[in-house]
């Protein structure tokens, strides 16, 4: 398994998965209020790469990252309606929502498949 390391531009914060990205956002939030903190938030929001989101399988981490980008600190979260189209968080939010939808659909299908396997499906009654 390959371990990827990402860094928030302009900081020394690194992460390798979405959970660590969320932790790094919390670390930025604990910094003293300043313009530098706001820049770090903005850079961190835009630095969540698509390939990392596509590899993530931990639903709670994806949900937390999505919540941060939708409702978090104003420098981290997406802007108000009408100003989102060209904002760097817009594609990241879409990727997070799409990945969550795929994982939840897989979990639902997996539960159905387990039910069929456990009780033999339609073949159990054709005997």
Write up this protein.
Helix 1 packs antiparallel against helix 2, helix 1 (18-29) packs parallel to helix 4 (59-71) and helix 4 packs antiparallel against helix 5. The protein has a two-stranded antiparallel ribbon. The protein starts with 5 loop residues before the first strand and ends in an 8-residue tail after the last helix. 58% of the residues lie in helices and 3% in strands. The model is unreliable at 115-127 (pLDDT under 50). By secondary structure, it is mainly alpha-helical. The longest helix is centred in the C-terminal third of the chain and has 31 residues, at 89-119. It is globular, with a radius of gyration of 19 Å.
| Shape summary | globular
Strand proportion, as a percent range, falls in under 5%
Distance between the first and last residues' Cα: 45 Å
Structural class: mainly alpha
Provide a compact summary of the structure.
The protein has 127 residues and is mainly alpha-helical. Helices cover 58% and strands 3% of the residues.
Write the layout of secondary structure elements.
Blueprint: E1 6-7, E2 14-15, H1 18-29, H2 35-46, H3 50-55, H4 59-71, H5 89-119
Antiparallel strand pairs: 1-2
Helix pairs in contact: 1-2, 1-4, 4-5
Task: Pick out its properties.
two-stranded antiparallel sheet, single chain, 2 strands, mainly alpha, 127 residues
């Amino acid at each position: 398994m390959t371990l990827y390391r990402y860094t928030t531009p302009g900081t020394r914060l690194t992460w390798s998965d979405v959970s660590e990205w969320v932790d790094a956002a919390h670390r930025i939030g604990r910094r003293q209020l300043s313009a530098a903190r706001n820049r770090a938030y903005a850079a961190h929001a835009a630095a969540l790469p698509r390939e990392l989101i596509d590899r993530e399988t931990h639903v709670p981490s994806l949900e937390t990252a999505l919540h941060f980008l939708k409702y978090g600190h104003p420098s981290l979260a997406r802007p108000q309606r009408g100003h989102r189209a060209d904002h760097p968080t817009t594609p990241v939010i879409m990727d997070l929502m799409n990945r969550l939808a795929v994982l939840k659909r897989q979990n639902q299908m997996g539960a159905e498949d387990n039910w069929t396997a456990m009780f033999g499906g339609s073949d159990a009654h054709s005997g």
